[in-house]
Amino acid sequence: MTSREWAEPDCRSKHKRGGAVVAWTRREDERLVTGKGRYVADIEVPGCLDAVFVRSRIGHGTLRSVDCGPARAVPGVVGAWAATDLAEMPPCVHSAAALQDLPPVPHTVLAKLSSDEAVAGREWPALVKERVRYAGEALAVVLGEDRYRAEDGAAEVTFEIDPLPAMVTPSAAADDSLLLFDGLSNVALQGEAGKPIEDAVWREAAAVVEGRYRQSLLMPSPMECRTILAVPEGDDTLTVWSGHQMPHRLRRELAALLGWSLDRVRVVVPDTGGAFGSKSASFPEFVVVAFLASKLKRPVRWIEDRKESMTAAARGRGQDQHARLASDADGRLLAYQLNIDADVGAYPHLGVGLPMQTAWMATGPYATPEVHATVRSVLTNTMVTYPYRGAGRPEAVIALERSMDTLARKLGMDPAELRRRNFIAPESFPYDTPSGRTYDSGNYAAALDLALKTVDYDRWRAEQARRRTDATAKPLGIGLSCYVERSGGEPGGLHEFGSIEANPDGTITARCGAASSGQGHETVFPALVAKTLGVDEERVRLIEGDTGEQPEGLGSFASRTAQVAGALLQHVSHLLIGEARKRAAGLWKVPLEQVEWSDGTVHDTQNGSAVMDLSELVKATGTLKVNDRFETKTAFPFGAHVAVAEVDPELGTVQLLQVVTVDDCGVQLNPTLVRGQAFGSCLQGIGQALYEAIPYDDDGAPMLGNGLLDYLLPTFTEVPPIEVRDTCTPSPGSPLGAKGAGESGCIGTPAAVVNAVIDALQVAEPDLLQMPLTPDVVWRAARAPKLEGAR
Description:
The chain is of the alpha+beta class and about 800 residues long.
């Protein structure tokens, strides 16, 4: 089945039963919404111990002592350890384990320091040994017969830390005035994409604009925080249960850190309450739990609570950017320069190369002749920065799209027209960008046109003009954002493993190396297999997230599951059909070309009575199972987002009156789930624009003592009218024609919201408006000088 066969007129896959189109329902929903889901916290294991970590309350300092003695005396406490008590415990992440999943560097990128050099000499200890480098870093661990006793024990642990100055932004740390690792620069890696731009280009351009943008550190905030349960088995193996995105990576890294062979570790992912990119690493707590379980020969579980997560879980975003954009007098782009100082946290092991995604995607959807992006990955006294929904692409889009609006104001041009004038033309694909990407397919103008039509752009511009003549009216702004993102992963990581097995009872088992954290795999993948085989989807069962069932796999990250894992399952389904035809031909002793497959059966085209259902074929010929590895190419989803915002200058509040998202993820396997992904991601993008940021005190500790009252997430009350639309440009790099769909809103929405507020206030210096646009930020900007001629 080709992508053309999947791409029905509106590019939405339809499901039929008995000739009628039926509504999609998620298989997993009944279980999850009725409380029948099985998460790590629900797994009951006899003799299980609960782990609680004692954490530093400051961001930087020298550890003088840790006293676990009083904790060991607490009733119900089985043990308490600091680093000095566990000298044989491995570090959290070492070079070999850390670098196995880093993507290769494209030839267009000059990496001045390689990733292995970035990690070398910067050990990330599972428990602090000598120096605290971020608030929340674990100093000790206490195991109790239950969580309550372990908490009581942890409260008795005392420690002494000599504070050091904390650096919580890359700008503060980049000058190396205080080093996080003695003798090693805080700049752990440098890289660039594209080629340097000659000064003459800037001098001779008709218009040049500049901007400085701060991307605050964010918390991914899944409903379920990090979890791990390590259960020693009788044959000297370890079964690890974890809400994780990459079970095979977790198995590989835990085995390497423990010095074990792979066959001694099994990782199982049960129901998982969200991830957004934050659950695909081997964290310090995981190493401690696995090590103590193997050492004590008892199950050990750690369930991160919300307060702990807000202090010690991985962060997202975190960049200081300087952008410069040039055009001719007609608004044709000439050059774009982006300099990035990225906050990668206290240890470079997980996210040191992540900011290169921003550099590689700097071109955006525009045919800009010259693009150059530089990156410095800077160590700071914060928890490690790691991929969070969008992972480098929101940062690229915000810098470029804010610059586009600034340029439009300077040229006196409508921002929609400026964008339309510079789009890469549909006939130009595949398109090699100056920053080193090869875009697969796209029709960027179509997405923008649909977004403008949906929002009724001309009506809002007329209302804006009316309000600007009414001194009593609240300012109104319309913000645009056009984006291109990358899905599937990087070359070398665009494959997946899996199998299809036909069972004697007529059921079909599909296995793959992915792991769901709420995306709806149980619904989408069996339906895909069923459609390919021509059988009812109730016959198909999916098994994933279990290294014991599927020995090889990559996992769920980079918006890759439909594009890569889906293509793999379609591929092995075709292999199963081929094998079934061969077996039937041998059984009937007829030529292979005489045997055809139709709706789950094989039949002899020359003998109408020779028909056999798949289950009958298995009973007659034995086990029928095919395994394989399948690889696709990187895809580049795109879209256009529009936000309409009303600003109250007296209160500094922003009310979003309308948000429109138009996204193109190629062929949609399940339109309902794609819509849900777009809606939820859009709301997270609004959160970044208006509400979310981690504030720090002078000691480098997050000021989040009141939990989600201090770190604001958009709730139902803050949800504006959001209209989700789509266009369809199938990907030529996957047989399904699918591209990633899960990250669009986080990538496109923030810039649209910020641009809308700037458009409403007409400030002369738009750099005054840095995310999040809190009432204080907006109130101050409303009192700043306006553009010439603005009210």
